[in-house]
Specification:
Blueprint (H helix, E strand, L loop, with lengths): L6 E3 L11 E4 L2 E2 L13 E5 L2 E5 L5 E7 L4 E7 L10 E6 L5 E6 L4 E8 L2 E9 L4 E7 L2 E6 L6 E5 L5 E4 L10 H7 L2 E6 L4 E6 L4 E6 L7 E7 L5 E6 L2 E6 L7 E6 L3 E6 L7 H4 L6 E8 L4 E11 L2 E4 L4 E7 L4 E7 L5
Parallel strand pairs: 1-19, 2-25
Antiparallel strand pairs: 3-28, 4-5, 5-6, 6-7, 8-9, 9-10, 10-11, 12-13, 13-14, 14-15, 16-17, 17-18, 18-19, 20-21, 22-23, 23-24, 24-25, 26-27, 27-28
């Protein structure tokens, strides 16, 4: 059974729900060796180390230790036992000294541990092949699915013990399989609150679930604003949704702490990709919610960023920005915004 304490369906943008706004000037992490950055897509922090994902390099991950001023590359690109071809997600585990990376193609997951100022692979596991993103909490893996009859999964320790959940979203009488394709998105959890937030990458939609009791996951909040524009076409004999050029990018990066959720809002249309190219993934608004789904504040940045991550060590939001010449690492001290 799904219980919802707060639900809303409106043809509105997520930004329309915010009353409180704050203009923010991002600071540049001057020590970071930006001449070593290529074309990063994700950013993460563990302890006092910034990690970026670089899919075009021979090594998929780069790290910079802020204390030691040390920069290094790791995780070779390849098909070997300790390699990956591409990274779909990088995120934290329940251990503050660990993080994981998810392989786009194989759904293989490496968990890295930070000790003695270095990073080591601690273990390897697999998640369902339809996984988009997922979160960890002790022995639980909770995530979002795409191209599945189910919207979310909860996996206990091994792939043989999986249950599914998720509130029904009606979209023009589409099948669940097609709905999970057009509403693919990101998730992030709070270990303290025992809640997981999901935001759609297309359109304006998000939900928050409580998994205090993993056997009875409850829907806490749901907002469905504008939905993606699409057509249904037969591709290789199968009916599939095809997003139109008028579809808007929604939340393109998601992070948080135990008090707040930080969502990078985009707003660009897919048809603008031919002009904007890689810049289509940059946005200048960060939406802050509490874990009940209540809008707290919208940050209006002085420049656009591509990805964000909350750093517990420094109580700061780190982001990937870009000058005319090269990418750069930016940050916001959260004491100034919360």
């Amino acid at each position: 059974m799904i219980y919802c304490s707060s639900c809303s369906y409106h043809s509105r943008q997520l930004t329309d729900y915010f009353v409180q706004q704050q203009k923010v000037s991002l600071a540049k992490e001057e020590c970071f060796p930006v001449d070593s950055i290529g074309a990063p897509i994700f950013i993460h922090t563990v302890k006092n180390t910034i990690i970026i994902v670089e899919p075009r390099k021979d090594y998929l991950l780069s790290a910079y230790n802020l204390s030691m001023k040390r920069y290094y590359n790791f995780l070779s690109k390849g098909r070997g036992p300790r390699e990956m071809l591409d990274i779909q997600q990088i995120s934290n585990t329940e251990n503050e000294n660990e993080f994981f990376v998810l392989d786009t193609h194989t759904k293989k997951v490496f968990t890295y541990s930070y000790r003695d100022s270095s990073l080591f692979i601690e273990n390897e596991l697999f998640v369902p092949k339809e996984t988009v993103t997922f979160c960890c909490d002790t022995n639980l893996f909770i995530g979002t699915l795409s191209g599945s009859e189910h919207r979310f999964f909860l996996q206990r320790n091994n792939i043989d013990s999986i249950c599914y959940f998720g509130d029904k979203i009606n979209v023009r009488n589409l099948s669940n399989n097609m709905i999970t394709q057009i509403l693919s998105g990101f998730c992030h959890n709070s270990l303290k609150q025992k809640r997981i937030a999901w935001f759609s990458m297309y359109g304006d939609a998000f939900e928050i679930y409580d998994y205090t009791n993993p056997d009875n996951i409850t829907l806490i909040h749901k907002t469905i604003g504008s939905l993606p524009n699409f057509t249904s076409e037969f591709i290789r004999g199968e009916k599939r949704p095809v997003l139109s050029g008028n579809t808007k990018l929604g939340i393109t990066s998601l992070t948080g702490n135990d008090s707040y959720i930080f969502a990078l809002y985009n707003g660009n249309l897919l048809k603008e990709a031919s002009v904007l190219k890689d810049n289509i993934f940059y946005g200048d608004k960060i939406l802050i919610y509490d874990w009940n789904g209540t809008p707290y504040k919208m940050l209006i940045l002085n420049e656009k960023v591509k990805a964000i991550n909350y750093c517990y060590e420094n109580n700061a939001l780190y982001a990937i920005g870009c000058d005319e010449i090269s990418p750069k690492i930016l940050y916001i001290n959260c004491d100034t915004i919360l």
